[in-house]
Automatic annotation (TrEMBL):
HAMAP family: MenG_UbiE_methyltr. Its EC number is 2.1.1.163, 2.1.1.201. One of its GO terms (biological process) is methylation. The keyword Ubl conjugation does not apply. Methyltransferase required for the conversion of demethylmenaquinol (DMKH2) to menaquinol (MKH2) and the conversion of 2-polyprenyl-6-methoxy-1,4-benzoquinol (DDMQH2) to 2-polyprenyl-3-methyl-6-methoxy-1,4-benzoquinol (DMQH2). The keyword S-adenosyl-L-methionine applies. It comes from Oryzomicrobium terrae. The gene is ubiE. This is Ubiquinone/menaquinone biosynthesis C-methyltransferase UbiE.
């Protein structure tokens, strides 16, 4: 049946995502720097700046992987606050947790699917998801879950690849589909995972579509900021 087919396709996607991140976990950070020429650090710094996170806040980093955002937030919230690192993938979560511990930050690390968060309603001030939403099977469910766990006055921040400014699109496509898989092959011996990455970026909803999805799951206000000509966008959903 159509639904049977859809179920298989969804399971396939989840399995594929798991395979990709199992495969790249140990080389993930170095590939991030290489592929984005270090730009991912600026995109994350922008997100941290916009978060308004302060001492005592509770922050959830969804699909937090190797923990860049969690690390920055842990320093900000201090001993009276909480940062939770979460990810569906044990390999990525393990690398993230070890990295934070090595830097003197002990945070709870929870293996969970963003589509079913194991937290009570209205628990967090800020929820972030950086370069993770694109991998999720039901983006609307994941976003509804993130909205559920923020307090009124809180926000959900989605940092993700988006639709690049049209005049530079051919150049960007060449880079994504020709250059990145080759670099991936050399550094991780795994061109396929990086081909998946380029495809998943192309399939991801553009700025306005994602804004619509976020409004659709109940955010009271959604705004976005284009970064690096729309290579990446930061969407912020507010709950009043
Ligand atoms: N946030 C980190 C960063 O910005 O460097 C890691 C991003 S990494 C590209 C994407 C992460 O999303 C992976 O660690 C993957 O395991 C995680 N992920 C994929 N699907 C997920 C889901 N349904 N729920 C939670 N995490 C998921």
């Amino acid at each position: 049946t159509h639904f049977g087919y859809q179920q298989v396709a969804e399971n396939e996607k989840a399995k594929r995502v798991a395979g990709v991140f199992d495969s790249v976990a140990t080389r993930y950070d170095v590939m991030n720097d290489l592929m984005s020429a270090g730009l991912h650090r600026l995109w994350k710094a922008f997100t941290i700046g916009k978060s308004g996170v302060k001492a005592g806040d509770r922050v959830l980093d969804v699909a937090g992987g190797t923990g860049d955002l969690s690390l920055a937030f842990a320093k900000r919230v201090g001993p009276s606050g909480q940062v939770w690192l979460s990810d569906i993938n044990a390999s990525m979560l393990g690398v993230g947790r070890d990295r934070l511990t090595d830097r003197g930050q002990i945070v709870p690390a929870v293996q969970c699917d963003a589509e079913a968060l194991p937290f009570p309603d209205q628990y967090f001030n800020v929820v972030t998801v950086a370069f993770g939403l694109r991998n999720m099977t039901h983006k609307d469910r994941a976003l509804a879950e993130m909205r559920r766990v923020i307090k009124p006055g809180g926000k959900v921040m989605v940092l993700e690849f988006s639709k690049v400014w049209e005049p530079v699109a051919p150049l960007y496509d060449f880079y994504s589909f020709q250059v990145i898989p080759r670099v991936g092959q050399v550094v991780t011996n795994d061109a396929d995972s990086y081909r998946y990455l380029a495809e998943s970026i192309r399939m991801h909803p553009d700025q306005e579509t994602l804004k619509g999805i976020m409004e659709g799951v109940g955010f009271d206000k959604v705004e976005y900021h284009n970064l690096t000509l729309g290579v990446v966008a930061l969407h912020i959903g507010y709950r009043f």
